[in-house]
């Protein structure tokens, strides 16, 4: 148990320590197996026992049996090395997820022996009395006890977003949240018997949810896997129908297996991991795996003003008394703030500015974002300074209070309401001076609240219906509160603009107040403002148009906030939503990406994909740019993988048709993959730059680059291979059988042109100068070109060093031959650039580059 809290429910004693121990011993505790992520056994199983791994393992085993130890080792190192890295990455992620789940596991407040304690849900036993405040999660099933009243969001269980009032004897269920009010409930079902556990036991198990990019990549891999299976069948048929040796069949099967870009998933996994690590350094906690990719897709960010743009440190600036002195108004406000049980930031600010002693209300309506008001109802006995029930206040404090409030005039008993001026009273019941004071405050970015009174002494609650305002409200005063902008707010909004993200500020405050704060934060003067009342009068078409065109939304209810997010998503926008209060839960669940503050309610953290540690709102622009950088890096990696795989596939078909031969050995394919794709993809995710991402399929957006490069490189490589093959045939002695033709030089020439072509794609991928601009816009980044030159040197070093050359079964060409192939590669560059700039294939394929 943690440190004892202040007593809030003295009439409920709860269980004794002895009863708790007895019930826990009897198996009546709330112990539920806590499974936050995959077990280690499943991680190993999913990474090791796959079809593609089985295929590679079989091929490597056959190579070992045939005595081709080098080929077998190469397959094991390349494929299973990646598997080991992937397993390590996932185990590291599992441990982090387990730590996060424990860190943010909800706590519960129990009453035992009349005292309140913060405990872990696993310490709850059957019959415990638990206390709920706004934002608290209900952790076990039970029924309300005592005089409290709360409103509960059961949408996580039922799917319905309405707040449901709960009073004595009403049931409450684990998995729901207290939206407003304070009450106690008794635990009647714990552990595996709760409704939430029975409904969600399957959902609690880890589910591997693939992101959109991963789904596209899986489609690509499956397509190549089907092609590989088709080619394996053809190789098997050729083995039965022709005089190919088993060694030839194994070699060809290994090359075909290399067509499946298994390393692509590894490269993407590492890119996501790198991004997550960088984000942790920015105090951004990724709670859902797909959040990294979601960041890259965000087009619209919806901000809840309070706690995001502002610090949520509210201060009472000034009061405007109506029909009474300022001292009398402040006395009433002090009593109101001290007597409310459902406190919030506004009541805290009142308590700090207007001290008062507690009076027991006979009814209370807690503040709700949907209502925009709260109320206390006092009777006769509760208002006399000498007659009221006073608790935890010394006689000396009472005397000091009487002296400080010597002019205090005891008002008549009745209902006191604190809320939005336009909700409590219409403009016709306000004087021009009152309206001017309110208008002036909102234009200054201040929160303006009306304090009003009604002589009615009755409950405002209705059975199974929201509370209603009393009639004949009389204004007592207007209050102005300031909410300071975060110091980093201006820089943060500028960062969103740089990331190309459109902002929507949605708040329960007055629209003019929100607009004034937005302008102070640097959002710009040309912003469109709309109120919740105006939205309520619109039809669906008008609502959707307003959601797109407006920037600031004020006096918005939680339901309207959620509907705004839904409307933006219906219109094709990828929406992120930030929030910190319970009123934000509905809209967070509707967004593509939910972002919560660490200091926010348990409910918001529970539904969020991302939690901003230390409330690091200023880190968000960097986070969005990081997401764009990761996705752009993945897209560049995919381009290289696709070009290499398509090219080798087409060469296999082309050489089989034209020459009845197989173009590459397994080690040849390996060195092309390693130098042309493997090593470059180690740097691309690190060096990628953020930027706008096309709103279409990733594969479709890459066709402009991939198709021309693939077709032209395949034709160029085929020409080089055929040239050296013809030379080899012409040099063949007349007495030698053509079946004994040495394919060493043709294959080495083919490997050389493929390596050169793949490396020359790097400057085209990130053009350092205008001369290289064709498939991609000017980058000015020379690092990719430098890496290409270094890797070209590595290739020639392998060719020059006999042990390396023999391992990869390369035949050295003459210096003139390498120069000849280099000139052909450069000529290919000019042709490819012309094709890209002329956009011939783009027009033929109907690719719209926007």
Describe this structure as you would to a colleague.
- By secondary structure, the protein is of the alpha/beta class.
- It has four domains: 17-34 and 105-204, Calcium-transporting ATPase, cytoplasmic transduction domain A (Distorted Sandwich), CATH 2.70.150; 210-276 and 625-845, Calcium-transporting ATPase, transmembrane domain (Up-down Bundle); 283-309 and 486-615, Rossmann fold; 320-423 and 440-461, no CATH class.
- Helix content is 50%, strand content 15%.
- The strands form three sheets. An eight-stranded mixed β-sheet has the order 8-21-20-19-9-16-18-17, with helices on both faces.
- Helix 7 (212-241) runs antiparallel to helix 9, helix 23 runs parallel beside helix 26 and helix 24 (666-678) runs parallel beside helix 27 (744-765).
- The protein is elongated, with a radius of gyration of 35 Å.
- The two termini are 60 Å apart.
- Mean pLDDT is 79; it is low at 1-10, 200-209, 381-393 and 405-409.
């Amino acid at each position: 148990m943690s440190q004892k809290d202040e007593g809030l429910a003295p009439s409920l004693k709860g269980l004794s320590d002895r009863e708790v121990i007895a019930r826990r011993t009897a198996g009546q505790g709330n112990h539920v197996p806590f499974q936050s992520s995959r077990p280690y056994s499943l991680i190993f199983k999913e990474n090791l026992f796959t079809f593609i791994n089985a295929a590679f393992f079989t091929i490597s085993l056959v190579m070992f049996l045939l005595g081709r130890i080098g080929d077998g080792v190469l397959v094991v190192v390349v494929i299973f090395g990646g598997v080991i890295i992937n397993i390590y990455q996932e185990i590291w992620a599992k441990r982090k997820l387990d730590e996060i789940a424990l860190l943010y596991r909800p706590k519960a407040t129990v009453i035992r022996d009349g005292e309140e304690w913060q405990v872990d849900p696993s310490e709850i036993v059957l019959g415990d009395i638990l206390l709920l405040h706004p934002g608290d999660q209900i952790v076990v099933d039970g029924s309300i006890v005592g005089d409290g009243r709360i409103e509960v969001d059961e949408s996580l269980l039922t799917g319905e977003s309405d707040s449901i009032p709960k009073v004595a004897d009403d049931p409450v269920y684990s998995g729901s949240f207290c939206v407003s009010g304070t009450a106690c409930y008794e635990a009647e079902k714990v552990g595996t018997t709760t409704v939430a556990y029975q409904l969600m036991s399957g959902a609690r198990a880890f589910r591997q949810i693939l992101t959109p990019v991963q789904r596209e990549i899986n489609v690509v891999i499956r397509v190549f896997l089907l092609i590989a299976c088709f080619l394996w069948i053809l190789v098997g048929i050729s083995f039965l129908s022709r005089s190919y040796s088993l060694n030839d069949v194994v070699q060809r099967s290994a090359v075909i297996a290399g067509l499946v870009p298994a390393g692509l998933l590894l490269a993407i996994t590492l890119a996501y991991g790198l991004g997550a690590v960088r984000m942790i350094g920015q105090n951004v906690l990724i709670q859902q795996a797909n959040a990294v990719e979601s960041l890259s897709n965000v087009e619209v960010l919806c901000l809840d003003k309070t706690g995001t743009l502002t610090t949520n440190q509210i201060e009472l600036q000034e009061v405007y008394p109506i029909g009474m002195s300022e001292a009398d108004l402040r006395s009433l406000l002090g009593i109101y703030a001290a007597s409310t049980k459902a406190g919030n930031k506004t009541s805290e600010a009142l308590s700090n500015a207007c001290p008062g002693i507690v009076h027991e209300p006979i009814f209370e309506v807690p503040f709700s974002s949907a209502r925009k008001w709260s109320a206390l109802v006092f009777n006769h006995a509760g208002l006399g300074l000498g007659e009221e029930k006073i608790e935890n206040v010394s006689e000396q404090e009472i005397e000091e209070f009487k002296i400080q409030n010597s002019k205090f005039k005891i008002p008549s008993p009745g209902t006191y309401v604190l809320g939005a001026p336009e909700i409590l009273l219409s403009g016709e019941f306000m004087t021009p001076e009152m309206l001017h004071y309110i208008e002036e405050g909102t234009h200054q970015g201040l929160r303006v609240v009306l304090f009003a009174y009604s002589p009615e002494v009755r409950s405002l609650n209705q059975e199974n219906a929201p509370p209603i305002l009393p009639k004949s409200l009389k204004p007592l005063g207007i209050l102005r509160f300031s909410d300071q902008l975060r110091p980093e707010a201006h820089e943060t909004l500028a960062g969103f603009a740089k990331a190309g993200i459109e902002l929507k500020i949605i708040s329960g405050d007055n629209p003019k107040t929100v607009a004034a704060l937005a302008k102070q934060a640097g959002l710009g003067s040309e912003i469109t403002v709309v109120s919740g009342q105006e939205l309520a009068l619109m039809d669906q078409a008008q609502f959707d148009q307003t959601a797109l065109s407006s920037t600031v939304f004020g006096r918005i209810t939680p339901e309207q906030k959620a509907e705004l997010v839904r409307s933006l998503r219906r219109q094709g926008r990828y929406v992120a939503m930030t929030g910190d209060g319970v009123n934000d839960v509905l809209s967070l669940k509707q967004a593509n990406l939910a972002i919560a503050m660490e200091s926010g309610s348990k409910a918001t953290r529970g539904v969020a994909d991302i939690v901003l540690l230390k409330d690091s709102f200023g880190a968000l622009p960097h986070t969005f740019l990081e997401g764009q950088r990761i996705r752009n890096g993945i897209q560049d990696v995919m381009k290289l993988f696709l070009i290499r795989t398509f090219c080798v596939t087409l060469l296999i078909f082309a050489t089989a048709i034209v020459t009845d031969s197989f173009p590459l050995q397994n080690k040849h394919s390996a060195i092309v993959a390693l130098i042309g794709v493997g090593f470059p993809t180690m740097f691309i995710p690190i060096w990628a730059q953020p930027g706008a991402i096309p709103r279409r399929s990733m594969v479709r957006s890459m066709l402009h680059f991939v198709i021309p490069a693939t077709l032209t490189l395949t034709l160029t490589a085929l020409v080089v291979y055929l040239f050296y093959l013809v030379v080899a045939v012409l040099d063949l002695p007349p007495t030698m059988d053509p079946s004994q033709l040495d394919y060493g030089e043709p294959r080495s020439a083919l490997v050389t042109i493929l390596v050169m072509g793949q490396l020359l794609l790097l400057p085209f991928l990130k053009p350092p100068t205008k001369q290289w601009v064709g498939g991609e816009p000017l980058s000015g980044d020379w690092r990719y070109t430098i890496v290409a030159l270094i890797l070209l040197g590595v290739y020639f070093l392998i060719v020059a060093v006999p042990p390396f050359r023999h391992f990869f079964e390369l035949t050295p060409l003459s210096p003139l031959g390498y120069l000849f192939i280099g000139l052909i590669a450069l000529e290919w560059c000019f042709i490819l650039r012309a094709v890209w700039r002329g956009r011939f294939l783009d027009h033929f394929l109907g690719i719209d580059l926007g």
